[in-house]
Amino acid sequence: MQIIPVIDLKDGLVVHAAGGDRSRYQPVHFTSSICDSSEVNQVVTSLLKLYPFPKFYIADLDAIGGQGNHDEAIDNLFSQHPNKEFWLDKGSSYQTLTMTTRVINCKTVIGTESQRLPVLLKNTDLILSLDFKHNQVLGHPGWLESPELWPETNVVMTLDLVGSNKGPDFEKLSQLCKSHPDKHFVAAGGVRDVNDLMRLKTIGIAAVLLASALHNGNIDAATLEKF
Q1: Phi–psi pair at 90, nearest 5 degrees
Q2: Stated pTM of the model
Q3: C-alpha dihedral over 90, 64, 148, 159, to 10 degrees?
Q4: CA dihedral 160, 198, 44, 216 (to 10 degrees)
Q5: Do residues 107 and 55 make contact, with C-beta atoms less than 8 angstroms apart?
Q6: Which option is the CATH number for 2-224: 3.40.50.10540, 3.40.50.1100, 3.30.70.100, 3.20.20.70?
Q7: pLDDT at position 79, please?
Q8: Which residue ranges in the chain fall short of pLDDT 50?
C-alpha cells in the first residue's frame, strides 16, 4: 500500500486542510512538527527528509474554487523533482484537460465536485476523485451510479473527515473494494495512525493520501517503512 503526502495550496502557501471548510484553512507550519515554513518547496523538502516518498498529491484549492491558481509554483515543483510523480487536482473540467499538454511526471486528477456531467474515463490515464461531504457525493450523482465510467485508479475523498482525527470512512471504502475488485482505491480523509493504515491495507486499499498525520508526527518514518 502506497503512502502519498498531500500538498494543499491556498493563497500562495501550503495549508492545513481540516473539515472541508476551505475558508478556514491555515498555513501548515502553524501546526506542523516537521516544517517551519509553508512555502511549497520547503514543505516538500521537509516531507522528503521524513521519508523518500515517490509520489505527491497536490490540490490547488484556489484553482478548484475559481479564485486564481498556483501554476507557476507547481510547474517549478515538477521541474525541481523530475523523478517524483505528482497527482494534480486543479478543478479542471474533462473538456479542458483534453486540450492541455501535461508534463511527463504529472498525472491529472478529475474531481467529481468540479465536473458538470459524468464522462467516460475508463480507458484514460486520468485519476478520478470521488468527492464526498456529509456522506453525499459532490457533483453529479451519476458519477457514483456509473462505475463503468471510472478509470483504474480512484480516490475516495471524504472532505469532512480531512484533518478531523476521526478516522477514515472504513465502511464506504470496504464496500467499494468489495464491489469493484478491478479498481484501485485511494483513501483520503481522517487517517490518524498506523492502526488506521493497517486496517485500510487489510480491506484492500491501494494507497492512502496523508497530510495531518505526517505533520503532527502520528505517522513517522519508522511507521512509513512498514508500508
Answers
A1: -125, 25
A2: 0.94
A3: 110
A4: 70
A5: no
A6: 3.20.20.70
A7: 95
A8: none
The three grid cell numbers given for residue 99, joined into one nine-digit string: 486540450
CB 124 within 8 A of CB 138: no
Matching residue, cell 457525493 = 137
Q: Which three cell numbers stand for residue 73?
A: 509554483
Cα separation, 136 vs 124, whole angstroms: 26
Buried b / exposed e over 184-198, threshold 16 CB at 10 Å, is bbbbbbbbbebebbe
For residue 74, the SS3 value is: helix
Instruction: Determine how many CB atoms are found less than 10 A away from the CB of residue 84.
Output: 17
pLDDT tens per residue, range 75-95: 999 999 999 999 999 998 888
CA-CA distance, 205 to 207, in Å (whole number)? 6
What is the grid cell recorded at 106? 504529472
Return the ∠ at Cα 213 (arms to 61 and 70), rounded to 5°: 20
| Cell reading at 121 | 474515463
pLDDT at 159: 85
Name the CA dihedral angle for 17, 196, 202, 1, rounded to a multiple of 10 degrees.
50
Query: At residue 63, what are phi and psi to the nearest 5 degrees?
Result: -65, -40
